[in-house]
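Tutorial, part two.
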Amino acid sequence: MITSEWLYWLIGAFFIAVAVLIVTDTSHAKRLGNAAFWGILGVSFFYGTFVAAKTAPSWVLGIAVLVMVALAGLGFTGTTSRTRVASIPGAGTGAETGPAEPTAAATKPSASTSVLATTSPDERAAFATRFGTKLFIPALVVPVVAVLVATLGPLVSIGGAPLLAEGSATLTGLGIGSVLAVVVAVFVLRPPRIATPIREGGRLLQAIGWAALLPQMLSTLGIVFTQAGVGDAVGTIIKSILPGGSLFAAVVVYCLGMALFTIIMGNAFAAFPIMTAAIGWPVLVQGFDGNPAAIFAIGMLAGFCGTLVTPMAANFNLVPAALLEMRDKYGPIKAQIPTAAILLVVNIGVMYLVAF
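Running the prediction step on this input gives:
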């Protein structure tokens, strides 16, 4: 029976490989801090298998997280070269975060080539013209394979036993799709070295930095908040201040609460159990006899309005700013605030009109 542990080990091996490439790059001013950060993360993926099996103490992972926080917080991670932005209109003068200065050396790496070296904008434009729509083939492999494995995998049995462990089909499909996408990309694009995917992955990881781990940390935070009874505590406070019998006030508080908790936690899925336990179920569904499907679906949309305006949602806001080498790393948030505000008002109105 295949479980999802192989995928965690593969991810851990990738982080360790990136750490090795970084520590061997003597031109990198922050190579030790970066190597330690990604190396600890990689080892944690291996160690987590034994924690899940209850054969190793979990507090070790807690210490590992604190060490990683210290490394990132004290500035021992990240890139040190300023980005080349002259060819990017409106990009400004660059900043110390983001990928190192692009260089043609990435197409013909040598022993001294930094793991941060990459192609220039002109070179990338030339490659785009050369390969055209073929560039989309590796990206499309991931979802196609993931869907096929997640759909058909649970139906396959060997000797009367299921091939995939229960609940592992989606992760297994995602892992297989990702591996096949790399193989297809190497076959189609013909990079100069087989290690190019790892080198480019390492460059992107350092460009994103600690924000790459924020979604994972925030999902854990949501579980902690739920287990600590934050939803019940918030519900008690809200019920004490809500005007009695006011459906509109309850809808406004629920939608605003979803947005605010998402801003704090960076993830509407983490905010959902808290606000649903506080007001969604006891007040809107049980108290006002609302339609649960409509209330909770629209409530999630209200939470997504918070996603648009928080740096905690790093994968939506900070990561694009880093990858696009924007001078203002909060640029996406500033551009999205008007849209988020309008959508929040619309969600409140829609819930009030159609969910009851």
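The chain is about 65% helix and 0% strand. In part three we will examine how such features are distributed along the chain.
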